[in-house]
């Protein structure tokens, strides 16, 4: 891992969706899907992003690659020693930048065109960027399919002729076609059988070792995130609440929401006596988040101060590279995953 280079820097990212009502579709409010998110990704690392469904994970990824236009904030991608702000670049210049940043979608059934052969699907980015002749693109497709574990003789088949795991491999091959440096993996294994998930995860790791990609790996499955990530970000209601190295998150969580997520991991033992720590109440409406800390209505450790003052994401004094968005982080004694297994 090249720790000296921050290949991506996100600062103050916001994505608000307007709420429209009435005959004239007047805007009466905003759903704050991503609300003031800041983080960075180092070269050749896998940065995990985890949280409940609807917390803003996929919206964050889609803003980074500009499938969605951010409401505010900076998204800076390092290129030749300089940083280019993806959030502000003109759309006619965005095409060239997309050679460096690609995305693998969650559902290969809907992300692959059922009317196109695998050859055309994988070669499509090359054709769009006018790279190579038809024969050169065909040779590139053969090479990419072999690298992701498929037989190049299958390239004239259609997506429906492949299994779910194979279709996702086709999606990975398409993402690799332009030799990107940064790849967003938006829950790429959640639609696959458990037996196939491990194979695809191992493929991602092998490709990273070979090509030196940086991944933003989005998932809601904590076991998947632990397996593949170097660092993990935990997201709740549009905000990053904790960022730390993978082992640190699992062994020494510093935010109550992270503790609750770790406590929700299935034990696998039907006779386990592990006591699950759960939050009462529902996730607040992102169009009307609570004042102060947005977790305080559900947090068992909240105080009056939490209800009034919004915390900031800060690095803990005694924990390098460990950032927490909690007023009481240094006072709480929270349980990590392995601790709770021993109850």
How does this structure look, described?
- This protein has twelve helices and twelve strands.
- The model is unreliable at 339-343 (pLDDT under 50).
- A hairpin with a 2-residue loop joins β4 and β5 (82-85).
- The protein has two domains: 2-252, 3-Layer(aba) Sandwich (Rossmann fold), CATH 3.40.50; 253-343, no CATH class.
- The chain is α/β, with parallel strands linked by helices and 343 residues long.
- The chain has helices spanning 57-64, 91-97, 108-111, 118-128, 134-147, 164-176, 194-211, 222-228, 246-251, 256-263, 304-308, 337-341; strands at 2-21, 26-43, 46-50, 72-79, 82-85, 101-104, 182-186, 214-219, 231-236, 239-245, 314-315, 323-324.
- Strands 6-7-8-3-9-10-12-11 form an eight-stranded mixed β-sheet, with helices on both faces. A four-stranded antiparallel β-sheet has the order 2-1-4-5.
